[in-house]
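2024-03-11 09:14:02 INFO worker-7 job=invfold-0412 stage=load source=structure_tokens
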């Protein structure tokens, strides 16, 4: 996947914080529906080409990594909640709900750890415009 944004901050470890404008379903005319909560997203990306603060850059990542991250973040917790509920149902409804909720929350720890592995695959590939 390819996206563009501007470099908000350059870190000393070879990464940069890049800010992306959020694409909306309404085509960016947010005043018409007031549905967008945040208009910008930030990501920490690998900066091997030496982009500086304020530069507009192109950022690339593998589509399969993005789709896998979305699946892990959105679907795995739901599957874990259902599985935990079914496993602990024999101990009663309350116990099953508590166990399922705890497993659901712990699944986000797994998602965070998995997300760190993918972070290294998101790179600045081109400087579009210097500040």
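2024-03-11 09:14:09 INFO worker-7 stage=emit residues=131
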């Amino acid at each position: 996947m390819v996206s563009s944004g501007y470099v908000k901050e350059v870190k000393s470890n070879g990464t940069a914080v890049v800010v992306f404008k959020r694409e909306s379903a309404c085509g960016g005319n947010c005043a018409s529906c007031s549905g967008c909560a945040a208009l910008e997203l930030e990501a920490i990306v690998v900066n091997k080409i030496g982009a500086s603060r304020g530069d507009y850059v192109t950022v690339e990542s593998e589509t399969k990594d993005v789709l896998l991250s979305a699946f892990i973040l959105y679907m795995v917790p739901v599957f874990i909640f259902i599985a935990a509920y079914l496993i602990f149902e024999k101990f009663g409804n309350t116990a099953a709900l508590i166990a399922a909720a705890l497993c659901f929350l712990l699944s986000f720890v797994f998602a965070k750890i998995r997300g760190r592995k993918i972070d290294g695959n998101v790179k600045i590939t081109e400087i579009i415009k210097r500040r």
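2024-03-11 09:14:09 INFO worker-7 stage=report msg="The mean pLDDT is 83."
2024-03-11 09:14:10 INFO worker-7 job finished
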